[in-house]
């Protein structure tokens, strides 16, 4: 909404969409944090340190309310208190609280993060950069710790035909909430990086660039895979 001047940030029944996300995960927390990273390239996830608590903001839906909600959870607001302010279903509030509770725990532990906590963070959608910010480390150090301790994602496939017949389309996503791959990639592939954060005026054009690149690589006899936020 920051693209538009003199436009109210309050969200109501009128359409104000300036982009879209499609986050896929096996837990709500995982998909939610993926979605937040897709909305804005400057956001690492459900970050409680971006905004301060403001109950007036909590009462009115805006494009930034979820981050004020994160700050409120970190400040100790109860699920019932937040429900009374936001009218967001308690189920969702509890899932958001799970993220903030682990965020707080990682801040308390600091740089010597146990593998079990690192694995738990990845399962509820924390990125390496997000974890690094919590423990005052670097994204590369967190990545190295993950790889050394075999905390790695698995490739899962979305069944687009609900099991009626074998799915032939490879709609794939990465998740840490699994123990095996749905699809293996034993042969060499050429990776095409997707368009990233979606914005009006960029998403369709960048997607078409990526698809055009994939088609040309296939014409050259290359096997391809496109990677985006999921």
Automatic annotation (TrEMBL):
InterPro entries on file: CarbamoylP_synth_lsu_oligo_sf, CPSase_lsu_oligo, CPSase_preATP-grasp, PreATP-grasp_dom_sf
Gene3D superfamilies given in the database record: 3.40.50.20, ATP-grasp fold, B domain, Carbamoyl-phosphate synthetase, large subunit oligomerisation domain
Keyword ATP-binding annotated: yes
GO cellular component, one term: cytosol
One Pfam family of this chain: CPSase_L_D3
MF terms (GO), sorted A to Z: aspartate carbamoyltransferase activity; ATP binding; carbamoyl-phosphate synthase (glutamine-hydrolyzing) activity; dihydroorotase activity
Keyword Ligase: yes
Keywords: ATP-binding, Ligase, Nucleotide-binding
Domain Carbamoyl-phosphate synthetase large subunit oligomerisation, chain residue ranges per copy: 53-176
Alphabetical GO biological process terms: 'de novo' pyrimidine nucleobase biosynthetic process; citrulline biosynthetic process; glutamine metabolic process; UTP biosynthetic process
Domain of life: Eukaryota
PANTHER family assigned to the protein according to its UniProt record, in alphabetical order: CAD PROTEIN (PTHR11405:SF5), CARBAMOYLTRANSFERASE FAMILY MEMBER (PTHR11405)
Protein known as: Carbomoylphosphate synthase
Organism per entry: Culicoides immaculatus
Gene: CAD
């Amino acid at each position: 909404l920051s693209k538009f001047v003199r436009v109210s940030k309050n969200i109501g029944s009128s359409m104000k969409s300036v982009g879209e996300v499609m986050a896929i995960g096996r837990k709500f927390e995982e998909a939610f944090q993926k979605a937040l990273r897709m909305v804005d390239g400057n956001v690492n996830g459900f970050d409680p340190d971006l905004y301060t608590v403001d109950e007036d903001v909590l009462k009115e839906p805006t494009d930034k309310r979820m981050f004020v909600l994160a700050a409120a959870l970190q400040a100790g607001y109860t699920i019932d208190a937040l429900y009374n302010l936001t009218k967001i279903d308690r189920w969702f509030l509890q899932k958001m609280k799970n993220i903030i509770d682990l965020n707080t725990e990682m801040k308390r532990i600091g740089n010597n993060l146990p593998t079990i906590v690192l694995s738990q963070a990845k399962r509820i959608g924390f990125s390496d950069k997000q974890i690094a910010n919590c423990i005052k480390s670097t994204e590369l150090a967190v990545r190295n710790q993950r790889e050394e301790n075999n905390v790695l994602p698995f490739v899962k496939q979305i069944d687009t035909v609900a099991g009626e017949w074998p799915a032939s389309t490879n709609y794939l996503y990465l998740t840490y909430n699994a123990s095996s791959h749905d699809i293996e990639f034993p042969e060499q592939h050429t990776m095409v990086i997707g368009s990233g954060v979606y914005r009006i005026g960029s998403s369709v054009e960048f997607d078409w660039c990526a698809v055009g690149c994939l088609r040309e690589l296939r014409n050259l006899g290359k096997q391809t895979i496109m990677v985006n936020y999921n």
